[in-house]
Design brief:
Blueprint lengths: L1 H32 L1 H17 L12 E2 L2 E12 L9 H4 E7 L6 E2 L2 E3 L6 H13 L1 E6 L4 E6 L12 E14 L11 E5 H6 L4 H32 L6 H8 L13 E5 L4 E5 L1
Parallel strand pairs: 2-8, 6-11
Antiparallel strand pairs: 1-2, 2-3, 2-5, 3-4, 3-9, 6-8, 7-8, 10-11
């Protein structure tokens, strides 16, 4: 009887072992068949993790001044290529706006300015966290505006007031993954469409200021190029000189050559133009 029970136990154990092995081999087979897909998913997951650390939350480091909560933000922009090669800034300008949680409108990326960062660093961080963009930030703000938050109880000071500093950010990199992508949707708009979504006066004024600053900068660059051309161009040009001079014809935009400060940390990389 004991021998029979022992054989029966071994037989049952062997059957369980075979079943377990069969299941494991099946899993290994599926993994082998899906290795390309799994490998791709792992790469995507790695990129998500490397894109940036989580967005900052809380009010522990929030700056306040004169009962106002201090806020930093930016208007991200880029220039669109047009068929007629126009240098008209307003025609080529595209502005990036993001969706506002629990609302149907669009806003510019902005958030609390904290006590361990400069105002320009805060603006760059907010652009990365909320809109997933990096770029060249003009050090001089477009302006500062006082306004009441949509939620005076949770977002601003006791009095419900915010003082926001807005900057111009020329976008050079648009991330596929960023900390706030589950909360914010982003949309590139023409200048005219962007004005339609400026539900607050201060937003429209900031956008107007951006267009003015960019237009003034282009005018100064154009005057500089004309002065340089007049200084180095002889009164009579040979054919070879004329061909060489054509290579120096004015273009719409130049590359900044000075006054550039690089800001690096674990999450954001931004260039500030002085």
């Amino acid at each position: 009887m004991v021998g029979f029970l022992s054989l029966s136990f071994l037989s049952n154990g062997y059957q369980e072992f075979q079943e377990t092995l069969r299941n494991e081999l099946g899993v290994f087979s599926l993994l082998f068949q899906w290795k390309n897909s799994i490998g791709f998913d792992l790469i995507i997951a790695e990129k998500k993790m490397m894109s940036c650390s989580p967005a900052r939350t809380g009010r522990d480091r929030q700056r306040y001044e004169d009962q106002f909560r201090l806020v930093a933000g930016c208007i991200p922009y880029r220039f669109e290529k047009v068929d007629d090669n126009s240098c008209d800034i307003e025609k080529r300008l595209l502005v990036l706006m993001i969706s506002s949680p629990n609302r149907d409108d669009l806003v510019f990326p902005k958030g609390g300015w904290e006590d361990d960062e400069s105002v320009t660093e805060a603006a760059c961080r907010e652009a990365l966290e909320e809109a997933g963009v990096k770029g060249i930030l003009r050090e001089e703000p477009l302006g500062d505006w006082e306004f009441r938050s949509k939620s005076t109880q949770n977002s601003c000071s006791v009095g419900g007031g915010c003082r926001g500093y807005m900057f111009a950010l020329e976008v050079t990199e648009e991330l596929d993954y960023w900390p706030g992508q589950d909360t914010y949707l982003r949309k590139w708009l023409t200048k005219d469409d962007a004005f339609k979504f400026c539900r607050y006066d201060w937003m429209g004024k900031a956008l107007e200021r951006l267009i003015t600053v960019l237009s003034e900068g282009e005018t100064e660059e154009e005057e500089t190029r004309e002065d340089q051309a007049a200084e180095f161009s002889p009164s009579i040009l040979s054919v070879s000189d004329a061909r060489a001079h054509q290579k120096l014809s004015p273009v719409c935009f130049g590359t900044p050559s000075s006054g550039v400060q690089h800001l690096d940390d674990s999450c954001s990389k931004c260039i500030v133009l002085g």
